[in-house]
TrEMBL record:
It comes from Pelosinus propionicus DSM 13327. The keyword DNA-binding applies. Belongs to the sigma-70 factor family. ECF subfamily. It comes from the Bacteria. GO terms for biological process: DNA-templated transcription initiation. Residues 117-167 form the RNA polymerase sigma factor 70 region 4 type domain. Keywords: DNA-binding, Sigma factor, Transcription, Transcription regulation. The keyword Transcription regulation applies. Gene3D superfamilies: 1.10.1740.10, Winged helix-like DNA-binding domain superfamily/Winged helix DNA-binding domain. Residues 20-79 form the RNA polymerase sigma-70 region domain. One of its GO terms (molecular function) is DNA binding. Pfam families: Sigma70_r2, Sigma70_r4_2. This is RNA polymerase sigma factor, sigma-70 family.
Length: 177
């Protein structure tokens, strides 16, 4: 690892908690996940541009300014509500229709209904952004690349949200079974 990379890694490791506190002090009711996503985006961008460090007098101030800009972007994002009964733009079917198999027998239909209700309940317990990315990728069939372009979010952020959502859903559904 080059000296300049080591310097950036050292700054990041020392200041990560401070970055998160900085965000939480300025944005009330921000989830830990969203604060971590903001820090991760800034760290990713700075680390990939590690050579700029020698063109900047104070890299730490630069990172705080980058975080502030990401927070402004976060606050400007419109909230996207997702309903399980909302029609999909591509197929015209609701999310519920993707889950239910109309050709199944009564017992199977009842089990599917119970599973759908459990899934719906578990999805409603997720953070809004986690729920959105999970539904979009697992049920609606969007790729991360499509979602990144559609929502203006980095692919890495979407991947981490989906991973967190899947872990939470597994835990919630396991407890219901």
């Amino acid at each position: 690892m080059y000296k300049q990379e080591q310097d950036v890694v050292e700054i990041i490791s020392k200041e990560q908690k401070n970055f998160l506190q900085y965000i939480r002090r300025r944005i009330k009711n921000i989830s830990d996940m969203d604060a971590e996503d903001i820090v991760a985006d800034v760290v990713f961008n700075v680390y990939n541009k590690v050579d700029i460090q020698y063109h900047i007098e104070n890299i730490l101030a630069y990172m705080y300014r980058s975080i502030k800009n990401k927070m402004i972007d976060y606050l400007r994002q419109p909230s996207r509500a997702i309903s399980l009964y909302q029609s999909d733009e591509v197929s015209g079917r609701s999310i519920v229709e993707f889950i239910v198999d109309r050709s199944a027998d009564i017992e199977t239909k009842m089990l599917q209904e119970e599973l759908r209700n459990q899934l719906y309940g578990a999805l409603m317990k997720l953070d809004r952004k986690q729920r959105e990315v999970w539904i979009a990728t697992e049920i609606e069939g969007y790729t991360y690349k499509e979602l990144a372009a559609k929502w203006g979010e980095p692919i890495g952020t979407l991947l981490s949200r989906k991973s967190r959502a899947t872990k939470i859903l597994r835990k919630l559904l396991k407890n219901n079974v």
